Amino acid sequence: MERRVALKNMAAAMGAMAVLPAWASGWNQQSIGAGKLLVADQSLVLNAVVESIIPKTDTPGAGELGVANFVQKMVKDCYDKKSQATLSDGIDALNAKSVKTIGQGFAEVSKEQKLKLLQDIEKNGDAEQKAFLSLVKNLTIQGYMNSEYVMTNITHYEMVPARYHGCVPVKK
Description:
Number of strands: 0
Order of helices and strands: HHHHHHHHH
Strand content: under 5%
Structural class: mainly alpha
């Protein structure tokens, strides 16, 4: 790799880290606040999509933690108009596909039917639907893993890792 390319990539990475909002790490539902991108019906569908991606098990699912609000906030604040349109249009297309194939909106169908619809998009969908699903998947994983609940209860986040214990007996 050439030095100029490496320097350009490092500068881009540093700029991206500086631009990333502070609320994107260790967030909770109160810290996100208002400023929705989608209308109420689209928000319900988005909540069903993120809950389908990371469902509730013995830990809370993405829907319960409010990851759908995180996805909306990230797309509204950090993405361009094209990506915002991809999210909105993708939700409408997913809901229309659900109504056409099953007869109900995406938020009302069973878990198995939701997974089948999402898998159909991943395998057979057009480029716009795949871009929508990829955007939502990536932001769902990012939002879930950076949520306050996951960072404190599951990953046991420490501000300064690798504590120093100076007086520890050493066994021979």
